[in-house]
Design a protein that fits this description.
- This protein folds into two domains: about 10-125, Enolase-like, domain 1, CATH 3.30.390; about 145-215.
- The N and C termini lie far apart (about 85 Å).
- Helix content is about 45%, strand content about 15%.
- The longest helix has about 40 residues, at about 180-215.
- Helix 6 runs antiparallel to helix 7 (about 180-215).
- It is elongated and about 75 Å long.
- The chain has helices at about 10-15, 35-50, 100-120, 125, 150-155, 160-170, 180-215; strands at about 25, 35, 55-60, 70-75, 80-90, 145, 175.
- By secondary structure, the protein is α+β, with helices and mostly antiparallel strands.
- It contains seven helices and seven strands.
- A three-stranded antiparallel sheet has the order 3-4-5. A two-stranded antiparallel ribbon has the order 1-2.
């Protein structure tokens, strides 16, 4: 019985960029990115189906400092796919407060799995160094905060004044509590929608008057 062939559509699905949350900074080598193994597993299941692939881990070595190295054998029998790769992990090293040999083995296994899946073109943009990490806002050094009294006054202000307060207290050295920002933003949306509805009613009234005028 001949093996199945990976179709063009399957290859396209394999090559699709991983979601942003599936890629993080490497825990020790911060200049590198690390792929979360569960997203690789999900991609394999989506493309080939649950239970279609299998892996076997063989222990290679454990250093005095807790570095675990394993060999992972990966197969998808129906497609004649067979790969072997090595992975390593020290879970922060034996001197780390969070060191766990079991976690080191798991880390080494998932390290090998993600390497093998690069052969199937999963996570290509990461291995090519083209993955764009989500931008994070620089932490602001806030020295002036919106007071409760100012917040309450702002809630009863015009939409222009509310917009000004939001703009002023979300940049530079000025800031406000998250709940204040949420409530002011919602109030601004409500006022904008109210203004929009009023303008819409005014237009309808004008059209109605024009129609009545045309009847005479």
């Amino acid at each position: 019985m001949s093996n199945k062939t990976i179709t063009k559509e399957m290859r396209e699905d394999l090559r699709k960029p991983l979601p942003a949350e599936g890629v993080t900074k490497h825990p020790t080598k911060t200049y590198l990115s690390s792929i979360k193994a569960i997203y690789v597993v999900e991609r394999l299941n989506d493309v080939f189906g649950l239970g279609s692939w299998r892996s076997k881990v063989e222990k290679q070595s454990v250093s005095d400092k807790g570095m675990v190295v394993v060999k992972l054998i990966f197969e998808i029998p129906e497609y004649g796919i067979y790969h072997e790769s090595y992975g390593g992990n020290d879970n922060g090293g034996e001197n780390s407060k969070n060191f766990d040999l079991g976690d080191a083995y798991k880390g080494a296994s998932t390290d090998a799995l993600t390497k093998i899946c690069s052969f199937l073109e999963i996570g290509l943009e990461v291995f090519k160094g083209k993955h764009q990490a989500p931008k994070t806002e620089a932490k602001r050094d806030i020295t002036v905060w919106l007071s409760e009294a100012q917040f309450k006054i702002s809630l009863t202000s015009s939409k222009e004044q509310i917009a000004s307060v939001i703009s002023t207290y979300t940049s530079g050295v000025k800031g406000m509590k998250k709940e204040y920002l949420t409530q002011l933003t919602e109030k601004l949306k409500t006022l904008n929608q109210l203004e929009k509805n009023q303008k819409s009613k005014a237009i309808d009234t004008t059209e109605c008057d024009a129609t009545e005028f045309d009847l005479y």
